[in-house]
Every structure is written in structure tokens, then in C-alpha cells.
Design brief:
This protein is an alpha/beta fold. It is 31% helix and 19% strand.
Length: 350
């Protein structure tokens, strides 16, 4: 049972790690976020990651994502991947990157599986490409274990490309997040298409990329009938900040611009899918109404994948998503006019 340190409300859906209920975080961010900030700082110190995006006046700007890092000699960007060595930024390039991969038989557990033709391609494979760094700091990260690698091992692109075979139906990039790795992922995709021109290129991302980079990713997905999957973590800036160490406004803006761009070019199969993790107590009705309206304001035909939560990383003191929470989320989506809603990880519901 957690207790909000501000309003003293008690609930199993108040995290003692976060220390405050969602209402107090939304209504009184100045009183709550500074303390939650320290939770993020501690979680990053565990893995020797920068506690804040560097802002050195004499640093080199990194323009890959919305963080806007300026990295001085010897520093690393917030993602931990890009660093200033000898006056230039190094991290991931066309020839190698800290990346792992595997061939995943179709159909597979894909965020967009309910709307993707790949899940009807039995006998084929998804080449799942996992990038081992991220530009957010989600306290509930389901794949946090990649941080243990500390970005020490890189793998050559040619080794990865050897997994592209006649039975490879799609490539899906995820992580961590692919945003810091776009200088590797985009050239890799183009090389893969030279090996197999009918391979689908899909991206699973937090949406925090520089928008010009997102547009390059989009063109590859549109060309190959792939999908861009954007994870919208929350709606309120303060809840976004509490959960992920970023306020989220630029991510919302990227999502809207990207969806409008993609839907102009293609409406079927759906070129863009939104996903949201149903974090008990925090991604509540108010957050869900906001996200649903954000999606429907672009198009009611954008699919929304709602995912059940289970405790992970430093957010281990919340229960799994309840069935009533999931049912309410689906109802909210329908009230907003969304036509394609799916509930994932059903086996986790309590």
C-alpha cells in the first residue's frame, strides 16, 4: 500500500518509489517533480548514465532527437551512446553499432500485430533488431537489462545483414530506442532492401527523434508497406516527466505531424500505430482521455494498442494492470471515436 507524500491518500496504485499520486503530480508539479527527479537520477547513476542532457555551451550539438544535447569533450549525451571524442561525435554509424538481433517466427508478439499483415505470414520471419541505448528514462522499462552491457560491444552491419533471407518478411527496430541509432538503422534498411526488395521496414519508437529523421524512417515504411509504431507514454506533461524524465509535448507534436504525413500517403495497411502501457494509478482515466483525443484529432482510423503493465525496472511496487482498468481504457478509446483498438498482454490482467 503506497501513500502520497502530499495529500496522504493511500492506495495499492500509488508507488512508494515515485512517492506521489497522479492527481498531485498533475496539479502540483512544483511540489512533486523535484523529488521524483531524484528517483530518475539514482536509476541512471546505477549504470553510469548522464543524469541530465548535457548543455555545455562549448559542446557539439547532437541533433538526433528532441533532447538537444550539447556534448563537450569527454562527455556523453543523455542516451549514453553518443560521446565527444577529439572534437567529434561518435556512437553508431552505417558499419557497426551496439545492437543485437534474432529471427522471430511469424506471427509474433508485435505491438501492431493485430493490424499487420505480417501476423498472417506463417512460415516467415521477422528480423528483430534491438538497439542497446535510449533517450528516455522510463521507470517501468520492460527491457532495462540492456543497460548492463554499458555499450561496450558493437556488432558489424554485415553480420546483421546475413540474417536477411528469402524467408525474412520484415525488419522491426526496437530497444532501448532506435532514435539514437538512426545513422545505423536507416542505411541498414536501404542495404537490406537491396538484398530483398519486398521486405517490410517497421519501427517501434518513443517518438522523440528529430522530425527530419522521422520523415526518413517514414518513407522507408511507406515504400515497403511497413508500420511506424509510436509509444505514447502519457498525456499530461507532469505525468510524462514523472514516468519517463521528459515532458512529452514534442513527442505528441511529432506523433501528430507524422500521422498526418503518413495518412496522406497511405491508409491501408495502417502506416502508423499508437501504443500505451496501462500503468496502474498513473496512466489513469484522465491520461487515457487525453491520449485518445490526441489520436482521434488526427484520425479515428489510427490503431491504438493498449498494453497491460507488469512491475519492472525501478517501478516494482505497483500491481499488474487490472481487468477493470483495461476495460475502462477500451471504453475511453471508443468514446473518442477510435475504430481500431487492441488490448495486448491479456495474460497479465488481474
Amino acid at each position: 500500500m503506497g501513500v502520497c507524500k502530499l495529500c496522504r491518500k493511500e492506495s495499492v496504485e500509488i508507488s512508494s518509489t515515485i512517492g506521489f499520486c497522479a492527481d498531485c503530480i498533475r496539479r502540483r508539479p512544483d511540489d512533486t517533480l523535484p523529488q521524483i527527479e531524484e528517483v530518475h537520477r539514482r536509476s541512471r547513476r546505477l549504470f553510469n548514465l548522464p543524469e541530465e542532457p548535457p548543455r555545455s555551451k562549448d559542446g557539439i550539438p547532437c541533433n538526433l532527437c528532441v533532447r538537444g544535447c550539447r556534448i563537450k569533450e569527454g562527455e556523453r549525451g543523455y542516451c549514453g551512446l553518443w560521446r565527444n571524442e577529439g572534437g567529434r561525435l561518435v556512437g553508431a554509424g552505417p558499419d557497426e553499432a551496439p545492437v543485437s538481433w534474432y529471427l522471430d517466427p511469424l506471427p509474433t508478439n508485435c505491438v501492431a500485430g493485430f493490424t499487420c499483415k505480417g501476423n498472417r505470414m506463417t512460415g516467415f520471419y521477422n528480423l528483430a533488431v534491438f538497439y542497446e541505448a535510449c533517450n528516455l528514462n522510463c521507470l517501468f522499462c520492460q527491457n532495462w537489462h540492456y543497460r548492463r552491457t554499458n555499450l561496450k560491444k558493437t556488432n558489424p552491419t554485415e553480420s546483421l545483414l546475413s540474417s536477411v533471407t528469402p524467408k525474412t518478411a520484415c525488419i522491426c527496430y526496437f530497444g532501448g530506442d532506435l532514435g539514437p541509432f538512426s545513422p545505423h538503422a536507416i542505411p541498414l534498411s536501404r542495404k537490406a532492401l537491396k538484398l530483398k526488395e519486398d521486405i517490410m521496414i517497421c519501427w517501434e519508437t518513443n517518438g522523440a527523434e528529430n522530425f527530419n529523421i522521422l520523415k526518413e524512417m517514414v518513407q522507408l515504411s511507406l515504400k515497403t508497406k511497413g508500420i511506424v509504431k509510436i509509444d505514447i507514454k502519457a498525456f499530461s506533461p507532469s505525468i510524462y516527466k514523472a514516468l519517463c524524465h521528459i515532458s512529452g509535448e514534442k513527442i505528441h507534436e511529432n506523433f501528430k505531424k507524422l500521422a498526418e504525413l503518413m495518412l496522406e500517403e497511405r491508409d491501408h495497411p495502417p502506416p502508423i500505430v499508437a501504443s500505451t502501457l496501462l500503468v496502474p494509478g498513473y496512466v489513469d482515466e484522465e491520461e487515457l482521455y487525453g491520449i485518445a483525443r490526441l489520436i482521434s484529432s488526427v484520425s479515428p482510423d489510427i490503431p491504438w494498442s493498449l498494453l497491460a503493465f507488469h512491475p519492472n525496472f525501478v517501478l516494482t511496487d505497483l500491481p499488474t494492470t487490472s481487468r477493470s482498468h483495461a476495460e475502462k481504457a477500451i471504453k475511453i478509446a471508443k468514446e473518442a471515436g477510435l475504430r481500431h483498438v487492441n488490448l495486448g498482454n491479456i495474460h497479465l490482467l488481474r
